[in-house]
Amino acid sequence: MNKLLKSCLTALGCVLFGVALIRCKTRQTTDEPKKIAIVVSTLNNPWFVFLAERAQAKAKELGYESKVFDSQNNTAQETDHFENAIASGYNAILFNPTDADGSIINVKNATAAGVPVFCMDREVNANDAATSQILSDSYSGCVSIAKYFVETLNKKGKYVEILGMVGDNNTWNRSKGFHSVVDHYPDLKMVAQQSADFDRNKAMEVLESILQAQPDIDAVFCGNDAMAMGAYQALVASGKADKVKVFGFDGAEDVVLSIQQGKIMATGMQFPEVMAETAANFADAYFKGKRDFPKKMPVAVELVRKDNIENYAAYGKKE
């Protein structure tokens, strides 16, 4: 009996020790710092590099570990990043999608795994997927650009529109905002509209090709600043840079400088720092128990042109 009792007590002791060890490990896991994954569409564009850097800096300031993942404008690569982030125990994802429809499944998979997703700048076409979406008001921003476009061209002339990625809602919101104004002026004629995927080199190639068929254009409206700079390069190469007016959208550093120099007419200044820091702050609030976030939070876009350029720097206002 004594041997049996001793065996039982020993077994019980082992069980209790095991339970205590598990509790200890659980407590250690709970006490570990939260981790935030920052998944961006591409790091081949300085604007998105800035967005990612500001998100990472804010996460660090708030006391969280973070890592930036580059999807290279590829939804399949983006899917790999999401699977990695979930499997590696990241607690939230700050997300700049590659495709408004194609990215929905990645967001839903993350939220199903208990990982909140906060979209930055670009959205997904599902109201019940992301925890919150912090987005530039691209439509209104391009209404302002269009009004200046009409004024600058004296309500007449031929123009080209270079679109961004066709799977990104920003592409169409910007285009629709622009056309909501310009289409009311019948003497302003769009002679070509083509996508260049928000890419500088592609925009240069696209405009070079268009200029062969339409050499006498008066202006180019581009869906982002990278494409505006590519378009300007094409105009320089063709000897038309002083005759054709170029308009962009973003507030990137090289376009801010080009507006100062009179090379680019105007841009729509987005505020990536506001979007990135808001997303990080939302993740912080989520970790602390908050759940009622706005499904969509618009961030205003401001028209930047030569007569107000002194108020702006790259990616925002001067401090």
Description:
- With 319 residues, this protein is of the alpha/beta class.
- The protein has helices at residues 2-31, 46-61, 75-87, 104-112, 138-152, 169-182, 200-213, 225-237, 253-260, 272-287; strands spanning 35-40, 65-70, 92-95, 117-120, 132-136, 157-163, 188-195, 219-222, 245-247, 266-269, 296-299, 302-305, 312-313, 316-317.
- The strands form 4 sheets. The protein has a 6-stranded parallel sheet with strand order 2-1-3-4-5-11, with helices on both faces.
- Mean pLDDT is 92; it is low at 1-29.
Biggest sheet: strands side by side, in what order? 2-1-3-4-5-11
SS content category: alpha/beta
Sheet having the most strands: 6 strands, parallel
CATH fold title of the largest domain: Rossmann fold
How many runs of DSSP E, i.e. beta strands?
14
**Nearest-integer average pLDDT:** 92
Overall domain count: 2
User: Helicity range of the residues?
Assistant: 40-55%
Share of residues in strands: 15-25%
CATH superfamily membership of the largest domain: Response regulator
Tell the overall outline: elongated
Q: Which series of helices and strands comes N to C?
A: HEHEHEHEEHEHEHEHEHEHEEEE
CATH class of the largest domain: Alpha Beta
Counted by DSSP, the helix tally is 10
Question: What are the segments in which pLDDT stays under 50 over at least 5 consecutive residues?
Answer: 1-29
Distance between the termini: 82 Å
Rg is 25 Å
Under the CATH scheme, the architecture of the largest domain is: 3-Layer(aba) Sandwich
